[in-house]
Amino acid sequence: MRDSLLATSPVDGSVYVAEMANGKVVPKMDHLACFLPGLLALGSWLLRADDPALADADLALAKQLAATCWKMYSKQHTGVAPEFVRFDAVRGMYNGQNHNLLRPETAESLFILWRVTKDPLYREQGWAMFLAFDKWCRVPSGGFAGLKDVTRENPLKDDTMQSFWLAETLKYLYLLFADDDKLDLTQWVFTTEAHPIRIMSEPPDALALRRWATAASG
User: Fold this and answer.
1) Considering the chain, what percentage of its residues have pLDDT values greater than 70?
2) Which of 16, 66, 159, 191 would you label with 109, given CA atoms 20 to 30 Å apart?
3) Looking at the annotation, which residues are catalytic?
4) Which cysteines are joined by disulfide bonds (predicted)?
5) Phi, psi dihedrals of residue 57, rounded to the nearest 5°
6) Taking a C-beta distance cutoff of 8 angstroms, is the pair 129, 49 a contact?
7) Residue 73's CB: how many other CB atoms inside 10 A?
8) How many domains does the chain fold into?
9) How would residue 37 be classed by pLDDT, with cut points 50, 70 and 90?
10) What pLDDT sits at residue 91?
11) What is the mean pLDDT of the chain?
């Protein structure tokens, strides 16, 4: 990834992860890729003892990528990110598609970066993100819907509340402001769909064998 996909905008210095298509690098970053800052930050925290230098490099990159993901939100009139952005040497970052589907990836990374660094910046950004969603995406019935165009003064909604809005986006925003003992990241890991799974202290086969032996002896 570092060698083939990592790029920097010559306009504003935004660091982003590009795409590869038919062997060519495409200067485009989807909101879907904004899970990566959290992944790098979590790895730097949990594996620091194995390679401190790599951990420092991964955390620094995580912060840079998170800043780019946050810029996807802060550049919009609504404060809500588009589906993906592109980069060029004249405009820097610009919207590739203007709709928003209430995606969770940036919220996930803000949550993990807060847990790892305790930098209040990530809570401030998360709160601003929530307020923007609440202002523009809430519907009178109490649910939320995606936006057809995040650049408009009064954007139309898409009449759909994705399941991941509840299962992931709001979960990560809640955890961003919750105490650390709510899902301790040294004891739990999230799947790609934000399902928490307890981290085992030993391999499953060994654990099952030990439990069987304990039951048999009792």
Assistant:
1) 96
2) 159
3) 83
4) 34-69
5) -65, -40
6) no
7) 22
8) 1
9) very high
10) 94
11) 94
Query: What's the CATH number where 59 sits?
Result: 1.50.10.10
129 and 173 Cβ atoms separated by less than 8 Å:
yes
Say if CB 30 and CB 106 are below 8 A apart.
Answer: no
Q: Examine residue 1 and state whether it is found in any structural domain, yes or no.
A: no
pLDDT band for 13, please (50, 70, 90 cuts): very high
Q: What is the pLDDT of residue 215?
A: 77
Q: What are phi and psi of 123, to 5 degrees?
A: -70, -40
142 found inside a domain: yes
In a domain, 188, yes or no: yes
Cα–chain center distance at 161 = 19
Rounded to the nearest 10 degrees, the angle between the axes of helix 52-74 and helix 36-46 is: 150
Asked whether residue 185 is assigned to any structural domain, the reply reads yes
Mean local confidence (pLDDT), 113-121: 98
For residue 153, the SS3 value is: coil
Report the alpha-carbon distance of residue 124 to residue 74 in Å, rounded: 12
Is 109 in contact with 175 (CB distance < 8 Å)? Answer: no
Higher pLDDT, 213 or 196: 196
Rounded CA-CA distance 84/105 in Å is 12
Flag whether 192 is marked binding.
yes
Are 177 and 125 spatial neighbours (Cβ–Cβ below 8 Å)? Answer: no
